[in-house]
Amino acid sequence: MPERSLCLLIGYLFGCFLTAEVIIKIKTGQSVSQFGTGNPGMANVMRIFGFRTGAAVLIGDLCKTLAACVLCCYLFGRSPVVTGGAPLGQTAVLWAGLGAAIGHNWPFWRRFRGGKGVAVTCMAIFLFSPLWGLAADIAGMLVVFRTGFLPLGAVVITTLFTVFAGVFYGTEPCLLALALALIMLSRHYPGLIRSLTGTEEKNAQYLKRKK
Prior knowledge:
By secondary structure, the protein is an all-alpha fold.
């Protein structure tokens, strides 16, 4: 159990690094919370500042997730060097990914007001299962391209991966995937309702805007 808690903690601390906050602070001298929806994520940044800045935020969020998952997999995956407990195997990646998603969405230093964790979650499930994680990511991406609504795609990704995890990886990974799915749903619920009622702004328009 200590290994799982440490993976969550390590992931959380990495997740608390908000790439958008750093990039926009350097670019404008202001917090990202002052622009658009105030969300420190790729979509909001891309909508306001354009594709390149949004892509930089995306890369940073992917890299912090990668770092957290690789570190936890090294420490606790095969031969834990900290606690000496039973190795977690590849499940360490999902524990770290869950921690990173929680840290990104609720960073302690920002009064627990963070992003929505789409990039972080997509990276975590891909690192855990390159095949089924990628399949879920692609399915969600296709939904976004087809409908134009990011909330729909985000919920599809985690829901589909939860099914994959339950079928191919067993109880613990399935429960972790379910936790990620519930977090994603909670963060996108308002946008999901707007998408279903046709009042959500389509994300395809983000690529056309630059201020």
